[in-house]
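Private note to self, pasted from the team thread so I don't lose it. Backbone tokens:
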């Protein structure tokens, strides 16, 4: 139903569908109950108000059911998040630096770019920090967002499903040109990625990169 560029994105979409489904069910149920009570207890049928005493069974129900619903939503969300954070072993690591108003990425051989390139068949760990104010690296197609904070290092894990080019935005207001703080994530086939990484191929002037735009 949703187009996600990563397996983690599928779990996020599932949680979203569960939450929306529960919300719609509750909306319809509460609205129907309100309409029913409007007619059942209207002024013409009950001109004299009656004192209604508590009902222990109902009180237990409206405590237990919402608690179960919240636990279910939390469990699905936490399971997806836990699996994501467990994928760090053996991941290819890239350092990401946020600044007003752009991004720098540094690879393990010292190569630096302002566009993020990663291999398709390998999990990538982005180690993230900020050079000034708070920023947040957001990749909508991957359903991932992680804050970049000066003096701290955070990380996120990328597990792409297919090669392509995807937007990266800053999701934390960081000043005047915050809305222009965009770059690209380019997922490349492994042989193309390592050729570019190790030989320093200028991707902007080759046909390889054009297929990802």
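Design output:
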């Amino acid at each position: 139903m949703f187009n996600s560029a990563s397996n983690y994105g599928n779990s996020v979409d599932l949680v979203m569908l569960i939450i929306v489904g529960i919300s719609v069910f509750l909306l319809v149920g509460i609205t129907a109950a309100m309409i029913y009570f409007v007619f059942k207890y209207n002024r013409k049928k009950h001109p004299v108000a009656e004192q209604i005493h508590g009902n222990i069974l109902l009180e237990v129900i409206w405590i237990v059911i919402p608690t179960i619903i919240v636990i279910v939503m939390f469990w699905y969300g936490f399971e997806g998040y836990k699996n994501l954070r467990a994928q760090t072993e053996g991941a290819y690591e890239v350092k990401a630096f946020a600044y007003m108003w752009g991004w720098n990425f540094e690879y393990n051989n010292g190569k630096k770019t302002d566009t993020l390139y990663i291999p398709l068949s390998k999990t990538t760990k982005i180690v993230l920090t900020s050079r000034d104010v708070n920023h947040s690296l957001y990749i909508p197609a991957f359903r991932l967002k992680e804050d970049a904070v000066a003096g701290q290092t955070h990380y996120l894990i990328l597990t792409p499903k297919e090669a392509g080019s995807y937007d990266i935005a800053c999701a934390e207001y960081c000043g005047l040109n915050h809305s222009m703080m965009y770059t690209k994530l380019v997922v490349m086939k492994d042989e193309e990625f390592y050729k570019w990484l190790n030989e320093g191929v200028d991707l902007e002037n080759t046909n390889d990169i054009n297929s990802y735009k």
